[in-house]
Write a structure and sequence with these properties.
122 residues, mainly alpha
């Protein structure tokens, strides 16, 4: 068997040009009426539901995985920002400190002198 041959039974050969077809076959069948009767008596074809029912999918109503990962990344970023703000506030609190008594007395004296100058000008 070569590559151009088909497996299975061979087709009927094409009639030769000098072979005549069978003539004179007559049928009493009225094809128009018989076709109409067959179609009237045939059971109606039921439409097939070609649309996919998305409500019956296993993951219907659930948040997709890729959105869950994006939400988690966003929440992690917010948490990082919150931690940075807390650190910044703690640093600001550390910068606040109490003055010792000598520095406090010097500042009070300087403010009193300034007040006297402003009061005299007034």
């Amino acid at each position: 068997m070569n590559q151009y041959e088909r497996p299975g039974p061979k087709k009927v050969p094409v009639p030769l040009k000098d072979e005549k077809p069978i003539m004179g076959l007559v049928s009493d069948k009225n094809f128009i009426v018989s076709n109409a009767v067959e179609n009237i008596l045939a059971a109606p074809k039921l439409p097939t539901n070609s649309e996919k029912d998305f409500l019956k999918k296993k993951n219907y109503g659930k948040v997709p995985r890729y959105l869950q990962t994006i939400k988690k990344e966003i929440e992690d970023e917010y948490q990082l920002v919150r931690e940075m703000q807390i650190e910044e506030e703690a640093e600001m609190d550390r910068q606040k400190f109490l003055m010792d008594e000598s520095e406090k007395d010097e500042m009070i004296a300087a403010l009193k002198k300034k007040w006297e100058v402003v009061h005299k000008e007034y």
